[in-house]
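Re: the request from the purification team.
They wanted to know what the chain is likely to look like in 3D before they choose a buffer screen. I agreed to run a prediction and write the result into the notebook, where they can find it.
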Amino acid sequence: MEHLKFEFQASAQGRIGRPVVLVGVVSSGNLEVMVEHADFNGCCQITVSTSARGFGTIWQAVLEDFAARHDLANLRISINDGGASPAVVSLRLDQAVEEYQGRTS
């Protein structure tokens, strides 16, 4: 199991949503994402626990893209990965943020 940690500074303070959101499942080719509010002085902290070792640079690229698209502040995002592809990671992260911000129906 590999554990990775990333931090991204947001340009705004961000919007507080639901206390905690959990989407997805941990299974082969999929992942679980938990989003919760945390006081990080405007940062978004993302931790990844993955069974697929050696993909840190790919995680960095996917999460940089995610952070640039959403500009999230004061959030802790925890990912439990079962070997999801970058496209699945991006979609699951988008889903988690939409649910956190209450934008889903």
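For the purification team: The chain has two helices and five strands.
Please add any questions underneath this entry.
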